[in-house]
Amino acid sequence: FDATSLDERLRGLELSPVPVWVLDPEALRIRWANDLALETWRAPSREELLTRDFSGGPQAVKTRLAVAVELVRE
């Protein structure tokens, strides 16, 4: 995982008028987020948001995410 490269590729989304975040479905962690996403997730900082572990969620949410990832891969 190359955070610098990801930051460079997503720089334009920093100005998006809507919250944007990139979720790594394998690790169940957010890898990038714009400032509005920080507000949405009520994160005090980008660093704190990127360290959050979402793997403890309900099984239904994990299943829904796995199905969505499989559809995108196809």
Mean pLDDT: 90
Helix and strand succession? HEEHHH
Count of individual helical segments:
4
What is the beta-strand fraction? 5-15%
Categorize the overall geometry.
Answer: globular
Biggest sheet: strand arrangement:
1-2
Radius of gyration: 13 Å
User: What structural class should be given to the helix and strand makeup?
Assistant: alpha+beta
Give the termini distance in whole angstroms: 22 Å
Q: Low-confidence parts lasting 5 or more residues at pLDDT below 50?
A: none
Please, could you describe this protein's structure?
A hairpin with a 4-residue loop joins strand 1 and strand 2 (29-33). The protein is globular and about 30 Å long. The chain is built from four helices and two strands. The protein has helices spanning 3-10, 35-40, 46-51, 59-73, and strands at 21-24, 29-33.
List keywords for this structure.
47% helix, 74 residues, 4 helices, alpha+beta, globular, two-stranded antiparallel ribbon
Layout: helices, strands, pairs:
Elements: H1 3-10, E1 21-24, E2 29-33, H2 35-40, H3 46-51, H4 59-73
Antiparallel strand pairs: 1-2
A few lines on this structure:
This protein has four helices and two strands.
